[in-house]
Every structure is written in C-alpha cells, then in structure tokens.
Amino acid sequence: MQLTGKQKRYLRSEANTMTPIFSIGKGGATQEWVEEVKKALSKRELAKVNVQQTSEWSAKDVAKFIEDNSTMTVAQVIGKTIVLYEEAKDAKYVKYSLEVNKLAK
Fold first, then answer.
1. Around Cβ 12, how many Cβ atoms within 10 Å?
2. Pairing between strand 73-78 and 46-51?
3. CA dist., res. 89 & res. 42, Å (int)
4. Which InterPro entries would you find in this protein's record (predicted)?
5. Could you read off the pLDDT of 13-72 as tens digits, one per residue?
6. Distances from the Cα of 98 to the Cα of 12, 22, 35, 73, angstroms
7. Which of 46, 70, 85, 96 is least enclosed by beta carbons within 10 angstroms?
8. Domains in the chain, start-ordered, CATH in brackets?
9. What contacts 27, CB < 8 A, 6 or more positions away?
C-alpha cells in the first residue's frame, strides 16, 4: 500500500508514544521473523521495530527487506527505528485504518 504524506504524518504521530515491540539483532531479518511481525500487526495495525546496535543490518535495509517480503508498509524510518503499518482484516482490530482511509481522500 502506498501511503500519502498526510497518512504517513498521522501514523507517525500515533506511533510517537509507542515502544518498539520487535528488535533486530545479530541474526538480522528472516522470513520467519517477518511472519511474526505480520501476525502482531494483524491485531495492532501499527508497530515499531528497533534495530539494535549489534545488528549488521541498517534500519533502511530492514525496511526494504520487510517491504520486499510482505504486504506491510513502512510508514517511517528514523535512526534505528522503523514504524510499520498494515490494515487489519478483522473488524474488531481496526483502529488506525479508519482514519488512514479518510486521509486518502
């Protein structure tokens, strides 16, 4: 999903107070790790990922890997933190996508 500037700003503001729920360390990103993040996003819609200093991957490398290997959208990469978004399929987990869809118009 390609996000507009308004949508990205909204998601960044919502993610501002969040703490990262996933980390990338020495092992780097794998397809299995991406699937775990995808499961978490199916119930949250928005999450932060932290790239540890010991990781050989940069945050931009991880963001590209995620976008290439999943349907998740990278809303922001800042420093060693990545903000990920994916619209929830189940209506009871919809929180951010209502506003994101409004901002698309």
1. 15
2. unpaired
3. 7
4. RNA-binding_CRM, RNA-binding_domain, RNA-binding_YhbY, YhbY-like_sf
5. 999 999 999 999 998 889 999 999 999 999 999 999 999 999 999 999 999 999 999 999
6. 15, 25, 24, 16
7. 70
8. 5-100 (3.30.110.60)
9. none
